[in-house]
Design a protein that fits this description.
This protein has 286 residues and is of the alpha/beta class. The protein folds into two domains: 28-115, Rossmann fold, CATH 3.40.50; 139-265, Rossmann fold (3-Layer(aba) Sandwich). The chain contains ten helices and eleven strands. The strands form three sheets. A six-stranded parallel β-sheet has the order 1-11-8-7-5-6. Strand 2, helix 2 (43-59) and strand 3 form a beta-alpha-beta unit. The structure holds guanine (GUN). Residues 94-97, 119, 139-140, 167 line the site of guanine.
Length: 286
């Protein structure tokens, strides 16, 4: 078994990215600028957003977090997005999800200008990805793809994706289909999940259920990518982050596995930052 070390891969990709950002700054006299909008005080979102900002600054990207009350009206949130859209110094905008229930997330996501949609969640960007004409690819799916690409050729592989979210499962299924993998997108209503799982060369778990995937569901020498980030309390009463894969149960049987933490998480952030640079470059050249 080998570990797909997302942290190591992200560090090396970030070194390259840092050079590209320096080159961009030299050429255009401008620092790429990412704005993150955080509504409310969901604890997990706070952690993700702080990590994103910290990494952005480390790599040479300007970054600001706009913190808004969970009581904000949909209209005022849309107005905030409008003002970011029209601020010419801003290259990329991310609205952290989930949003409070009284706000229509689809409306909010679609309000972000397509030129600044760093998550690639805008319905036009998702449509282009589904058609095999991607402009901006969502960060977690792109991170998963880069991890897989670092160890194997995806062509003709049977891939099982567990979870059909708009953030991970669906866009990842389009991306890997475009790369000539044979993709099964499974979800809570899927029948015979175990048999699908046992015939898969690659399993990507993105369902948000701690330690869900066990070794008797996994083919020998399969490749596993674990997208889950779940908080559990261990035997000693301490809070711990675990993935959707029961790592200890599964690792001896597989050829490659990504850990949690230190797997997909750092790759998602790398892709966010590299998407920010791409958007900044496109805005300068189009
Ligand atoms: N919430 C969980 N993952 C993500 C993500 O990749 N982007 C945004 N905007 N919100 C998220």
């Amino acid at each position: 078994m080998k570990i797909i070390d997302g942290k190591l891969l992200a560090n090396s990709l970030n070194q390259e990215l840092r050079k590209k950002i320096l080159f961009f700054k030299d050429k255009y006299g401008k620092t790429p600028y990412l704005v993150v909008i955080l509504v409310g005080n969901n604890q997990a979102s706070e952690v993700y957003v702080n990590n994103k900002k910290k990494k952005a600054i480390e790599i040479g990207i300007k970054s600001k977090v706009i913190r808004l009350s969970d009581k904000i009206t949909e209209d005022n949130l849309l107005k905030t997005i409008d003002s970011c859209n029209s601020d010419n110094s801003i290259d990329s905008i991310l609205v952290q999800l989930p949003l409070p229930n009284h706000i229509n997330s689809n409306k909010v996501i679609d309000r972000i200008s397509i030129e600044k949609d760093v998550d690639g969640f805008n319905s036009k960007n998702i449509g282009l990805l589904a058609m095999g004409r991607p402009k901006v690819v969502p960060c977690t799916p792109l991170g998963c793809y880069k991890m897989l690409e670092s160890i194997l050729n995806l062509e003709s592989k049977n891939v099982l994706i567990l979870g059909r979210s708009n953030i991970v499962g669906k866009p990842l299924s389009y991306l890997l289909t475009n790369k000539n993998a044979t993709v099964t997108l499974a979800h809570s209503k899927t029948n015979n999940l175990k048999s699908l799982s046992l015939r898969s060369d690659i399993i990507i778990a993105a369902i948000g259920k701690a330690n869900f995937l066990k070794k008797d569901w996994v083919k020998k020498n399969a490749v596993i990518i674990d997208v889950g980030i779940n908080v559990v309390v261990n035997e000693k009463g301490l809070r711990k982050i675990v993935g959707d894969v029961d790592y200890k149960d599964v690792y001896k049987k597989v050829s490659f596995i990504s850990p949690v933490p230190g797997g997909v998480g750092p790759m998602t952030i790398h892709c966010l930052l590299s998407n920010t640079l791409s958007l900044a470059q496109k805005r300068k050249t189009s």
